[in-house]
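Help needed: design a sequence for this.
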């Protein structure tokens, strides 16, 4: 049911601002790689949407997730460490860890009702140095960042989170099951300009176009996700 809502979102139904918080674990002692953190964010976001608690009308998360998906799929990235990271683990959501980088995607809610454990977390200061990722892991879904657009790690985390969940309705039931068995593994890569330009107009690619509230111009295509992997 949630997949159908994602595939046919109706912005006209939105009556209040809702958002999915993405909590990025950024400890002082050991910072994760940027790529691994983005991959964890992408996996965690779609994992919440496709979890049985969200996917079906009798699920405990369904009312909040369906109300959010029916409007604009806003995500807000915040950083946490130590006791603050531990505190958000008690809130409804899913934590994904990729190569030591952890992100917890929380069940969406009205922004005005953001839990205090989340509201006290910083939004800014999530920048990480660009790294060179290794080969794409077997079975991972590749998400391409726009090579012409600079984004902080927090902004990019939200964008790849959009991409993974927008990709899901375009996959077959079998493909989604295989992806779920791999904990929705994603590979976030920045392609060459030539590869990006070859992908951007293809019909078998899901595109994330940003509303332009932060960092980028409205309508900017930030992420591309090939449906065939």
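Sure. Designed sequence:
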């Amino acid at each position: 049911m949630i997949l159908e809502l994602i595939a046919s979102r109706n912005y006209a139904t939105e009556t209040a601002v809702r958002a999915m918080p993405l909590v990025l674990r950024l400890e002082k002692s050991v910072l994760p790689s940027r790529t691994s953190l983005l991959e964890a964010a992408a996996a965690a976001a779609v994992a919440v949407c496709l979890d049985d608690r969200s996917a079906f009308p009798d699920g405990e998360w369904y009312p909040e997730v369906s109300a959010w998906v029916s409007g604009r799929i806003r995500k807000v990235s915040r950083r946490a460490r130590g006791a603050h990271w531990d505190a958000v683990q008690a809130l409804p959501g899913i934590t994904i860890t990729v190569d030591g980088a952890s992100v917890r995607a929380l069940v969406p809610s009205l922004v005005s009702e953001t839990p205090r454990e989340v509201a006290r977390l910083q939004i800014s200061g999530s920048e990480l140095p660009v790294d060179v990722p290794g080969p794409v892991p077997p079975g991972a879904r590749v998400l391409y960042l726009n090579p012409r657009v600079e984004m902080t790690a927090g902004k990019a985390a939200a964008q790849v989170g959009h991409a993974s969940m927008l990709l899901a309705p375009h996959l077959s039931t079998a493909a989604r099951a295989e992806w779920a068995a791999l904990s929705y593994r994603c590979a976030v890569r920045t392609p060459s300009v030539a590869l990006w330009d070859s992908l951007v107009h293809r019909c078998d690619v899901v595109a994330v176009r940003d509303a332009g509230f932060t960092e980028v111009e409205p309508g900017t295509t930030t992420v591309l996700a090939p449906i065939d992997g």
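Residues 53 and 59 are 4 Å apart (CA to CA).
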